Amino acid sequence: METKRWYLAVPLGDPAGIGPEIVLKAMQRVDLPPSMGMIVIGDVPILKKVSTDLGIPSDFDAVVVDDGSLVRAIESGSRHILYSQNILDMHRFSYGEIQAMCGRAAYHAVEEAVRLISSGYAHALVTPPLHKEALKAAGVDHIGYTEILSALSGTKRAITMFDTLGLKIFFHSRHLSLRQACDAVTKESLLRTILECDAITKNHGGAFRNELSLAVAGLNPHCGEHGLFGDEEEQAIEPAILEARERGVNVAGPIGADSVFYQARVGKYRAVISLYHDQGHIAAKTYDFNQTISITWNLPFLRTSVDHGTAFNIAGKNLADAAGMVRALEAAAEYLLAEGEKR
N or C: which end of the chain has fewer CB within 10 A? Predict the structure, then answer.
């Protein structure tokens, strides 16, 4: 569908967490260009409850229940649209509790957001947090957004990247135990990650400084000191980097994890490939916890996200910091515009 405005699809995440709160707060603070709008997907009663309980305005130009009313809202120029679901039983709802109906609502909101994008009504996805146990209680077979979105879009290998105020970090592996993450560092798998990350940066040249090298973090202290502290660098990481260079990739490393993220932050590298979950998470969140966002590449659409949890302990208390949600929305707009999609 051809529209006058580009829309960001925003599911509410787990309704029992801080998702609805940070979405409403972000709507008050976010600075999107006039060419951008939002389609929020969720149950009307939960937004009314959060708005009333916490005193946060719920400012939507239109509330729609199907694609026909959505089209009319878009054609009339609505900038903030609420696409209504009808899943939650508010008589059974409680803030901060793992509930199957909340996991179900969160999943169906994501599903609907992907459908809106594939139908041309929206152009990128921006997500607040899910709760893994609520998804499981709802019978959802996927552990989180990346897995859900991969299944819904038929994507075989989605790639996660953090963006913290311009510091960009790719992940070779994420949700593995530390032991499994070390075992996952093989020449073949790391070479594939390097090639994929290089292709992503080159395919999205407006978002990356491709004149700079990619950097690969070391796995062991001091990159193993020639085998004194582990042999993964010599056996897997260095050979993968060497072969990538032979294939024309501008890649540096391995570089000690205690320095490579700082070097990327000050502009030496276009991005860092972190070899496991916490290695990159610690660097990004120490730099700026609230403004660390996640970007998922290799999907058929752009997806940005906060990178914090549902915070059940503060849900419904008006304590949630919406900085990450604001940044995720603004980054989605920035990345779309950088791709030359501004109308």
Answer: C
Question: What are 130's two structure tokens?
Answer: 């899910």
Instruction: Count CB atoms within 10 A of the CB of residue 155.
Output: 16
Range list of H helices, 30-177: 44-54, 67-75, 100-118, 132-137, 145-153
Domain map of the chain by residue range? 6-156+299-338, 160-284
- Residue 292: both structure tokens together: 């660390």
- Token look-up 């990004």 returns 284
SS3 call for 187: helix
For the structural domain made of 160-284, what CATH number should be given? Answer: 3.40.718.10
Distance CA 160, CA 319 (A): 28
Tokens 């062991």, residue? Answer: 220
Radius of gyration in angstroms for the set of CA atoms belonging to the chain, rounded to a whole number:
21
Phi, psi values for residue 210, rounded to 5°: -75, -5
Please, are residues 86 and 263 in contact by the beta-carbon 8 Å criterion? no
- Does a cis peptide bond (omega within 30 degrees of 0) precede residue 33? no
- Residue 180's CB is within 10 A of a number of other CB atoms, namely 11
267: alpha, beta or left? (left if phi > 0; alpha if psi -120 to 50): left
Torsion of CA 30, 13, 148, 163, to 10 degrees: 30
What superfamily would CATH give domain 6-156+299-338? Isopropylmalate Dehydrogenase (3.40.718.10)
DSSP 4-22: SSEEEEEE---TTTTHHHH
Local mean pLDDT, 10-residue blocks, the chain (343 residues)? 80 96 96 94 96 95 95 94 96 96 96 95 95 93 85 87 92 88 93 95 86 94 79 90 96 94 95 94 91 90 91 96 94 83 41
Per DSSP, what are the bridge partners of residue 81? 39, 62
The pTM of the full predicted model, rounded to 2 decimals, is 0.87
